[in-house]
Amino acid sequence: MEANKLVIYNTLNRQKETFSPIHPPHVGLYVCGPTVYGDAHLGHARPAITFDILFRYLKYLGYKVRYVRNITDVGHLENDADEGEDKIAKKARLEQLEPMEVVQYFTDRYHQNMDELNVLKPSIEPRASGHIIEQQELVRKIMKNGFAYESDGSIYFDVEKYSQQYPYGKLSGRVVEELLNTTRDLDGQQEKKNSFDFALWKKAKPEHIMRWPSEWSDGFPGWHLECSAMSTKYLGESFDIHGGGMDLLFPHHESEVAQSTAANGHESVKYWMHNNMITINGQKMGKSLGNFITLEEFFSGNHALLEKAYSPMTVRFFILQAHYRSTVDFSNEALQASEKGLERLMQAMSKLDSMKPAGQSSVNLPEILEKCFAAMNDDLNTPILISYLFELVKLINSVSDGKQEISEADLQSLKLNMHLLVHDILGLKTPSKTENQAEDLNEVMNLLLQLRVDAKNKKDWETADKIRKELTRLGFTIKDTKEGFEWSK
RNA sequence: GGUCAGUUGGCCGAGUGGCUAGGCAGUGGUCUGCAAAACCUCGUACAGCGGUUCGACUCCGCUACUGACCUCCA
After folding, report:
1. Is residue A284 domain-shared with residue A251, that is, in the same domain?
2. Which nucleotide across the nucleic acid strands is nearest to A391, CA versus C1'?
3. Which of A265, A345, A348, A489 has its CA 20 to 30 A from that of A462?
4. Contacting residues for A251 by C-beta, under 8 A, at least 6 apart
5. How many domains is chain A partitioned into structurally?
6. pLDDT digit string (tens) for A279-326?
7. C1' of B41 to CA of A262 (Å)
8. ipTM of the assembly?
9. Are residues A262 and A299 in the same domain?
10. Using one digit for the tens of pLDDT, what is the confidence trace for A101-129?
């Protein structure tokens, strides 16, 4: 197919490269998923949607994709007074819940948000807590290869030793010597040989609830280990694409590279892809900054910074209107611009079916369509794709108005490709109105019956009777009351 | 402080060594009983200062500003 035309930006080499899978037609894709100890916010939507587009597009190109996106439900130290305490455990204790109860709750909420955003489910969604054995196995492997050491029940990765043999920092562009001077104090510092060494296995403190037995200590896996262990388990020692947010580049992904290389003797990932951040007032939207707006709040409009509610599709479209490697700044004005643009696009989509072919096409449709796919092939340039879609919107509207013509063959192609591009590849759908339908019907019925009351007041019996008769014919029961009216169906 | 990005018209946001991004808002029209929608039209923006070039918003350098990472964070 056109598979060989896809070009993606590989963080590893800081340049665009032609995508060529290791074992065509199969593609292995791993993306860092959420840490489920809080509601997903707008920032979480970005990688989910970015890699959803990649997943969809790769499938369109004919690849057989195995998409793995993990759920992080264990580990990750918290950098505050409760030094060394597991995030999940802390939240659980505060709320008097079982850790797994918290995990379940937020995982379900995350899934619901993703469904609303029309993000396809990954092929496998492994949990870190379900892969402790694999992670321990990986620790042993790294130790056996001599790149880790034990210190008071914890196992640390020996960055210095590793860097003598392999280039530590090649992904994020760090230099080991510089790291020496720039690393802050962390828990367990005194146990490490070097401040930049990172934990593979951490001994649990007494108050730490989530813990597993091991030959080193009762503890929990290190902060970066789960992705290495699970990607290897489901995609193999070498796989095609690893994605995630730019903020994970260092130290998370750098450490993954080191772990995999230390364990296997070679790197595991061919293409690293990183989405940029969503900013709010020019600053990163993030948990630690406390300036985030949850997806739930976007959908309901229930947040001080939101002028109104924004539908999941508006949020999705908003994100797709920027390239995934650019930051995108949140504002009500920008959201509302997206909302209106999306509406125009979707209205054109609904006109497609009633379009009539006539004569010769007044535009070069194949050329525009070619540009659409060229945009996708160019590192998933969705904003460019969308700009061409709006050209097609103009075409659809003009043909519908009888101001332009389209040939039979082009019309078929237009329908097919608009559907493909808008629904299948961009994953945009017409918002479901079912929830509002009952309310809408109520409004419409009240309006109609009020008109009937007005007619009765004017003794316009003909109009009043016509309304009742037609509604009755449609299966409604209309009852006049002293106060006005009642209706049922 | 180190590393890496970015600075585009009212807002958002692409891209390119010379030729229209696109959306939203705004202008003036067509259409229309009115309105809306749709379509057409208009706006000549690329942080500042140097340099390379026939020509730079696009390449190079410097300056300013903003941000990301260096610590959990998408």
Report:
1. no
2. B22
3. A489
4. A172, A198, A224
5. 3
6. 998 889 988 888 999 999 999 999 999 999 999 999 999 999 999 999
7. 64
8. 0.93
9. no
10. 889 999 999 999 999 999 999 999 999 99
